[in-house]
Design goal:
single chain, about 350 residues, alpha/beta, Isopropylmalate Dehydrogenase, two-stranded antiparallel ribbon, about 40% helix, globular, binds 3-isopropylmalic acid, binds magnesium ion
Length: about 350
């Protein structure tokens, strides 16, 4: 039976980078190494344009019926004025919560070829290989009550709720421990237990789960210190696990260590390893349509999809290696451009990866 892959380019550069990533999937389909059916659906601003909401019913139904989802990026200035419920971000958040994609894996790997693209000294980042495990369907992103209200005096107040149940903390920490077991066996749980009750519970539950992983060395760090340590000496980390919002912030920080946010893929998995795969960068309206966006994060997201959801690790290895060889050849999109390299656009970069395959 064919694997079902939903393809959701979204907005801005999402459209351009997904086109290159789809070429990789089509390549393996045409040489018979992947039996898959690809179906496109609009999401984000494109969903609003097509069906009046950022997560059209048909898009959600397709996502639910698929084995994996390849997602581009969402958002653009033309949608900024819409009511919150209609904003493109709701399309992405809706998919995450409707599909219960609670485990977000964000690897920050520095390709040796790009050591000079980082704003940090090469010796600080060379060989960097961190996995950030971000809880994705709970915490302050989804907690109720939330809103903006006007009190009796006429002053408005905005509020959100940071809430985690024990079961939510337990399942994300077990994902992180499992990943740590397959890597360097070190896990750092990031929280704000010196201030927040939720974090106190978080720490307690993580410690409890650690009893089942005696081989993993568990440490704890406050989020402010973690941000500092990430830029000071990032190689001290192997796997990090944290709440939704802390993970959002720390993963952007970790991305920059690697030179460009245009290089980093991500996977968002449910309890059965069904997943959504997307570059961690956004829709970059400022460069949309110019043909200069880096498609590598999305192509690497395809590799993660093949590895984590579609049981084709051999193809994932090939794609990862092909990206390495393209960088060896000195091809660079503007975001990772360096002296002595050849600057290429989105399509040229995609074609170069394809040629290596
Ligand atoms: C991310 C993004 C999203 C998030 C936005 C677009 C809703 O920043 O995936 O990191 O905050 O989770
Ligand atoms: Mg983010």
């Amino acid at each position: 039976m064919s694997l079902k892959i939903a393809v959701m380019p979204g907005d801005g550069i999402g459209v351009e980078i997904i086109a290159e990533a789809v070429k990789v999937l089509e390549h393996y389909k045409s040489n018979g190494r992947l039996d898959a059916e690809l179906t496109n659906a609009p999401v984000g601003g494109a969903g609003y344009d097509a069906a009046g909401k950022p997560l059209p019913d048909e898009t959600l139904a397709l996502a639910k019926a698929s084995d994996a989802i390849l997602f581009g990026a969402i958002g653009g200035p033309e949608y900024d004025g819409l009511a919150r419920e209609l904003r493109p971000e709701k399309g992405l958040l809706g998919l995450r919560s409707e599909l219960e994609l609670f485990a977000n894996l964000r690897p920050a790997i520095l390709y040796p070829q790009l050591a000079d693209a980082s704003s940090l000294k090469p010796e600080v980042v060379s060989g960097l290989d961190i996995m950030i495990v971000r809880e994705l369907t709970g915490g302050i992103y989804f907690g109720e009550p939330r809103g903006i209200e006007t009190d009796a005096s006429g002053e408005r107040k905005g509020f959100n709720t940071l809430v985690y149940k024990e079961s939510e903390i337990d399942r994300i920490s077990r994902v992180a421990f499992d990943i740590a077991m397959k890597r360097g066996k070190r896990l750092c749980s990031v929280d704000k237990a010196n201030v927040l009750e939720v974090s106190e519970l978080w720490r307690e539950v993580v410690v409890k789960a650690s009893a089942d992983y005696p081989e993993v060395e568990l440490s704890h760090m406050y989020v402010d210190n973690a941000a500092m340590q990430l830029v000071k000496w990032p190689k001290q980390f192997d796997v990090m696990v944290t709440k939704n919002m802390f993970g959002d912030i720390l993963s952007d920080c970790a991305a920059m260590l690697t030179g460009s946010i245009g290089m980093l893929p991500s996977a968002s998995l449910d309890a059965n390893s069904k997943g959504m795969y997307e570059p961690i960068h956004g829709s970059a309206p400022d460069i949309a349509g110019k043909g200069i966006a880096n498609p590598l994060a999305t192509i690497l997201s395809v590799a993660m999809m093949l590895r984590y959801s579609l049981d084709h690790a051999e193809l994932a290895d090939e794609i990862d290696a092909a990206v390495g060889r393209v960088l060896d050849k000195g091809l660079r999109t503007p975001d990772i451009m360096a002296n002595g390299c050849k600057e290429v656009g989105t399509v040229e970069m995609g074609e170069a990866v394809l040629a290596e395959l």
